[in-house]
Amino acid sequence: MRMMGYYTEAKPRVQIFTEYEVVMSQSSSLDLNYEIQGNGPAVVLLHGLFGDLDNLKGLGRELQQDYQVIYVDLRNHGDSAHAEHMDFALMAADLRQLLTKLELPAVHLVGHSLGGKVAMEFALRYPQQSLSVVAADIAPVAYEAKHHHILDALSSLDLSTISSRKEADQALAKTIDSIGVRQFLLKNLRLDEGQFSWRLNLAALQHNYPTLAGAVTDGHYSGPILFIKGGASDYLLAQHEAAIRQRFSRVELKVIEGTGHWLHAEKPQIFNRLVMAFLAQHSRTERLGVV
User: Fold this and answer.
1) Using CB atoms within 10 A as the burial measure, which of 68, 140, 190, 267 is most buried?
2) What is the dihedral of CA 158, 162, 168, 171, to 10 degrees?
3) What is the C-alpha to C-alpha distance for residues 59 and 44, in angstroms, rounded to an integer?
């Protein structure tokens, strides 16, 4: 089924941020946990909601043969710092602060789901630092909030009574049927001195979830962006085309049939090949000085 056709160059819309907004964003930035592997052009990998920097390591292991791969935990996830506030502008500012620390003037960005929204937000706010973007099964639009039941299940789990991961899984099974989803969520369970705790900042995620389900900023990014859709997923649809075209002009779309939202885990070889081909193309144009 045809979702989007070829795109023509759209007239750029300039996004203007006030000095107040920029200062507030920078002053609120958090230190992000990260890992670096490989050498070459820099590629940042950004995970989705409830995930961590391990989620895209299958892709990263292939990329690090030719690229410097930076795996990142988003704020309130993994081993990154926690904060009460969480929106796309803040998460983009967190990433910008990390790139400044690493002395990386510009990077390629690959993000899945929430990480894809952060990648798009970063490119729209900091286009000169964004060489290209891959957004995996996500659009820059507002979505229905689908994950309240997961947040409620995790928040209601009394970890003081849990003595093993098996017990935690059994407790979550009362409200979350999928064993795969439970195993994914339980990666966030940490054992320290005999007491389990969440690596996630559940209170912040629950409070800010409506914002995270919302759209990314307006503006325009004229660099290349690849959207990869899971064929059976409803996260990236024809109805999102207008919102995409308003923000991006150099758009490519690929569909991986027989996959859902977790396309990078369901068909990793195809997913990795698509990302690597896109990055190779735009790393070549970068080295040749082609815009």
Assistant:
1) 140
2) -60
3) 11
Residue ranges, comma separated, of all CATH 3.40.50.1820 domains in the chain are: 19-143+214-288
CA dist 44 and 71 (Å) reads 6
Query: What distance in Å separates the CA atoms of residue 137 and residue 130, rounded to the nearest whole number?
Result: 19
Coil, strand or helix: which one is 256? strand
Query: Does residue 71 contact residue 46 with C-beta atoms inside 8 Å?
Result: no
What string of pLDDT tens digits covers the 291 residues of the chain? 344 433 333 333 334 444 434 444 444 899 999 999 999 999 999 999 999 999 999 999 999 999 999 999 999 999 999 999 999 999 999 999 999 999 999 999 999 999 999 999 999 999 999 999 999 999 999 999 889 999 999 999 999 999 999 999 999 999 999 999 999 999 999 998 889 999 999 999 999 999 999 999 999 999 999 999 999 999 999 999 999 999 999 999 999 999 999 999 999 999 999 999 999 999 875 554 444
Cβ-contact 96, 124 below 8 angstroms: no
| Helices of type H across the chain | 19-27, 57-63, 88-101, 114-125, 148-156, 165-172, 179-186, 202-212, 241-247, 263-266, 268-288
22 alpha-carbon distance from chain centroid: 22
Which residues are marked as active site? 113, 261
The pair phi, psi for residue 110, each rounded to 5°, is: -130, 120
Residue 74 and residue 90 in contact, taking contact as beta carbons nearer than 8 Å: no
Q: What are phi and psi of 174, to 5 degrees?
A: -65, -25
What are the strands of the beta sheet with 34-37, ordered from one edge? 34-37, 68-72, 42-46, 107-112, 130-136, 221-230, 248-256
The per-residue b/e assignment along 71-93, b for 16 or more CB within 10 angstroms, e otherwise, is bbbbbbbbebeebeebbbbbbbb
